[in-house]
Amino acid sequence: MTNEEMYINQYKAGLTIRQIAIQNNTSYEAVRKVLKNKVEWRKKYISDFTESQITEAIRMFDDGKTVKEIALWYEISPPAISRLLHANNRTPDCSAKRYDILRASPINFVQKQFIVGHLLGDGCLYRDGNNSLYKISIAQKKAHAQYFHWKRAMLDPFVNAWRENIDKRGNSVMLNATTICHPGLKFFADAFYTNDRVKIVPKNLDLYFTPLSLAVWIMDDGSLNHGINMRIASMGFSPECHLRLQGYLKSVFDIRSKIMAYRYKGKEYQQITLNKLNTQKLSDIIRPHVVQCMKYKIMSESSTTKCQAPERDDDRV
After folding, report:
1. Are residues 217 and 289 in the same domain?
2. Residue 197 falls inside a structural domain
3. What is the CATH number of the domain that holds 138?
4. Phi, psi (deg, nearest 5) at residue 273
5. Is 24 left (phi over 0), alpha (psi -120 to 50) or beta?
6. Does residue 307 fall inside a structural domain?
7. Residues 6+ positions from 101 with CB-CB distance below 8 Å
8. Which of 192, 215, 250 delimits the end of a domain?
9. Total structural domains in the chain?
């Protein structure tokens, strides 16, 4: 019987690595090196983690999981998880007290306005399981890093950390962050999602549909056609939701819009469009809230905006 076979049999019989080393007059590391990849460890070590497991453990921490919860998930000691997090520029708190305090902290009115705009645009609410609390994801191209970090600041202190990854499909570098799970987000989940997880436009949006939320929506999904006509990439919403959005723009901001249908890859979609006059009006309303790197999405300030003639029904959009 070779040393390798003997070590394997002894380990499977219940001996620890140290006991095997003592019995065979060799070192702990020598036995461990032989057993590695030959047996399933009864005790796991960080050094045995794959790259994907390390990434996932860090993501769990960034999403609000405690060191104890992560350790329980991987069946490893909490101190080992703490060392892993420290090595990856995280500052773990082994107790849940900090997160309990944050979850008990209310989401303020400014943050609620931001969340509405973000959910109308690129934002997504999700949870890890049916019994979990909701959290918000933030993702932005690195080219718009200023906007990404502004979003993070808007949700402070509910965002732990952020990360950078390569989007191979879009051939770009993405910045990502996630809030902690928070009970206050259930209100928005119930308003913006059906039971089948389809995003909709709420019927009671008026309260939080402000210049700030409108600005976030436009920074996420707006674009200027020929520099004068706003196009809002609202194609993810249903025809009914488009009519609701059109109504909100008119009733809250006195902005008139049209719903334009178009086909893409054999499918029909809709998007909201504004003519020059209403694009100027929208730009002036949201300008104070637009991040510098995103100002290319709105028209420059015009001193003649209020002097323009009233819009006709046949004005070009």
Report:
1. yes
2. no
3. 3.10.28.10
4. -130, 150
5. alpha
6. no
7. none
8. 192
9. 4
Note whether 112 and 182 are same-domain residues. Answer: yes
Asked, for residue 144, whether it belongs to a domain, the answer is yes
For residues 20 and 35, what is the distance between their CA atoms, to the nearest angstrom?
Answer: 11
Residue type, 56: E
Joined tokens for residue 98: 């900090």
Q: Which residues pair with 269 in a beta bridge?
A: 262
Q: 0.90 exceeded by the pTM?
A: no
Residue 22 is part of which domain span? 3-35
Tens place of pLDDT for every residue, the chain, 317 residues?
788 888 888 888 777 777 888 888 888 788 888 887 788 766 667 777 888 888 988 888 888 788 888 887 776 778 888 888 888 888 776 555 677 788 888 999 999 999 999 999 988 898 877 778 999 989 888 889 999 999 999 998 998 778 888 776 667 788 888 898 899 999 999 999 998 889 999 988 888 899 999 999 999 999 998 888 999 999 989 999 999 999 999 999 999 999 998 887 888 889 999 999 999 999 999 999 999 999 999 999 875 544 444 444 444 43
Q: 126 vs 94, 181, 271, 280, CA distance in Å?
A: 25, 9, 25, 35
Helices 78-87 + 51-62 axis angle, to 10:
90
Distance CA(195)–CA(182), nearest Å, equals 19
Note whether residue 198 is domain-resident: no
Same domain, 210 and 273: yes
Strand pairing partners for 176?
139, 163
